[in-house]
């Protein structure tokens, strides 16, 4: 009798636990909605990053930085920049030059539960370098990480695809 009571009690506990577990797990529809929300928020953050850069908006750029300070930026012909402070210092210096513009287009993205990446085509232009226009077409990969349901930029890596010759003085 003692074993029968233990068996029945154990069975009830197992059934009760299974019901609680299945009711706590999100449904396929809920998972789909979460993924759609993550995708929208990821792309909104990325567009905000691109717009802040194009408009030289350092204050907005600061809001997109990882709260832990994790960041690295890789540029052609520049040492790797580590940390959000160094990243923002680089941009503050760059933004102080009014003679450039960029055009961007998001060409691809993969968004996961906590990490997402995107490829961006970017055209950088300076209208007058020693009397001639200069342009550089780059592919930029951005990596964003989600903290507390908010996306932050943690990596910015650009590669030059093609560029105009850099005009030299006197030519």
Give a short overview.
The chain has 171 residues and is of the alpha+beta class. It is built from 4 helices and 6 strands, in the order H-H-H-E-E-H-E-E-E-E.
Please tell me about this protein's structure.
The protein has 171 residues and is of the alpha+beta class. It has four helices and six strands; from the N terminus they run αααββαββββ. The chain has a six-stranded mixed beta sheet with strand order 2-1-6-5-4-3.
Overview features:
6 strands, 171 residues, 40% helix, six-stranded mixed sheet
| C-alpha termini separation | 102 Å
Q: Largest beta sheet: what is the strand line-up?
A: 2-1-6-5-4-3
The major sheet is characterized as: 6 strands, mixed
Mean pLDDT: 88
Please, how many helices?
4
Q: Please trace the helix and strand order, writing H or E for each element.
A: HHHEEHEEEE
Strand content: 35-45%
Low-confidence stretches: none
**SSE class:** alpha+beta
Helix percent band? 25-40%
Radius of gyration: 25 Å
- Number of extended strands: 6
């Amino acid at each position: 009798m003692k074993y029968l009571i233990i068996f029945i009690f154990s069975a009830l506990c197992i059934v009760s636990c299974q019901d609680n577990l299945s009711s706590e797990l999100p449904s396929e529809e809920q998972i789909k909605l979460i993924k759609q929300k993550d995708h929208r928020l990821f792309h909104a953050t990325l567009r905000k990053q691109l717009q802040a850069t194009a408009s030289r908006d350092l204050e907005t750029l600061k809001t997109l930085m990882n709260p832990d300070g994790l960041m690295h930026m890789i540029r052609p012909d520049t040492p790797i920049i580590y940390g959000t402070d160094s990243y923002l210092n680089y941009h503050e210096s760059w933004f102080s030059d009014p003679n450039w513009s960029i055009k961007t287009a998001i060409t691809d993205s993969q968004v996961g539960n906590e990490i997402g990446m995107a490829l961006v085509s970017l055209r950088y232009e300076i209208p007058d370098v020693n009397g001639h226009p200069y342009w550089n077409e780059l592919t930029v990969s951005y990596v964003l990480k989600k903290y507390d349901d908010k996306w932050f930029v943690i990596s910015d890596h650009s590669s030059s695809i093609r560029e105009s010759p850099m005009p030299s003085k006197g030519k």
